[in-house]
Amino acid sequence: MLLIxxxxxxxxxxxxxxxxxxxxxxxxxxPSALADEAxxxxxxxxxxxxxxxxxxxxxxxxxxxxxxxxxxxxxxxxLPRSNDGS
Amino acid sequence: xxxxxxxxxxxxxLSHHQNWQRAWRSPPLKAEYDVIIIGAGGHGLxxxxxxARNHGITHVAVLERGALGTGNIARNTVTIRSNYLRDESIPxxxxxxxxxDELTKELNFNLMYSKRSMIDVVQTSPKMRDLxxxxxxxxxxxxxxxPLSVEELRRRIPSLTGGxxxxxxxxxGGMLHPDAATCRHDAVAWGFAxxxxxxxVEMHQNTAVTALLRGPDGRICGVETNRGTVRAAKVAVxxxxxxxxxxxxxxxxxxxxxxxxxxxxxxPVKPLIDVIVNCPDIGVYxxxxxxxxxxxxxxxxxxQSFRRDIKQSVFEDAVVAMxxxxxxxxxxxxxxxxxxxxxxxxxxxxxxxxxxxxGLYVSAGWWGGFKxxxxxxxxxxxxxxxxxxxxxxEPFSLERFRHLDFVLEAGTTTAx
Lengths: 86, 416
Known about the structure:
- The structure holds 2 protein chains of 2 kinds.
- Chain A is mainly β.
- Chain A has one helix spanning 36-44, and strands at 3-6, 10-13, 18-22, 52-58, 66-72, 78-79.
- Chain B folds into 2 domains: 22-79 and 85-109 and 185-255 and 347-402, 3-Layer(bba) Sandwich (FAD/NAD(P)-binding domain); 112-180 and 257-345, D-Amino Acid Oxidase, subunit A, domain 2 (D-Amino Acid Oxidase, Chain A, domain 2, 2-Layer Sandwich).
- The longest helix of chain B is centred in the N-terminal third of the chain and has 19 residues, at 89-107.
């Protein structure tokens, strides 16, 4: 069980959260101007690093907030991430 | 190859089993091969076997980071079945069941193949509708699925005492898949390895591939390993879980996420369940092994993970689900648990495909890849030998993502 640090509730059990997938997948501004490859890339190819990854978590059984966390996919450790306002 | 038989057993017993041949050689690593297969797991070894057997290509090296057959081929729940949904998928899995039926004979290796059938325990009407739809589509492709009444279900699985009319999710009925089987998973890897070795294929253990290499023409030309550079015009990446880690060394990104799937076994008990029980509505499945242990499979861990252990939360969910239907298992002691890393593609169907890089082939995205080992190897060998996909895997190319032509199979696996 992971202990996830919610900015509102502090350290809470992972079972209170729902995993929300990769964070900051920026939708292309003008999809119709995009080449097929780039659009398919955006739709289907996720980042799959053996190491740190940014992902969303929903504190569904807690305060209800969506938070973005940086986690290592090998060690499950949460890592600090720069606060860029996202 | 020294054949295994009752006579060879008797003969070797006379010499106190001191004179058995080694099952495969450990030759020195050469600088060049015709084909390199990365990963000596089920799919990699099956590919090597069928490359030699069906296409006469034997100048092949199978490179393995650790020991042979210790990846997901050693970490699965040994279920062989063909109850899938899509027109593209069912024929592939029907083929794999057919290959498994003959595999013990073909490899001269006792796989302890047990065609014991699988029963889906259905507790919601949407799932029942879904399975009926699957049943009709499976009939079109020669697979088998039969509805069972609640009485028949309980007769076939006497320990299924939960799920009564007053429970949270009462059992509505079941589906019987008579083609389903189990077998000894290690024997699949060892059998294929022994047979491939006999035909001239080389297996190199403790040989970790660190990068793929491209020639000046952009085609693949070999791999970098911890034991030096090995060259080959054709390279197949068959590494389950770490596919992207390898392909990204030459900048090839794939529609794959690596996740962790959990399973565990109980202490050995007397025979309790003689079929494979799958409970899709609550997310658990149970098989009793030949040693008497109940093998219990749960859901996947949320989020991407390259770990091979299991999380307490996932484990608890599976146990709670199991006790809803099998309350008598409350006192079972659980002995071992493990996780495996799966690389799941965007549509939960496998990828057996050429890549944009000439000479580079990928077999990945296997959710329940154990059952697919013979057909996966059979079709990948065809693809490598002829550079054209076998008709059974044509729908599973990387091109399908480009055309958004998905083969959606989430829900026919343990995915909830």
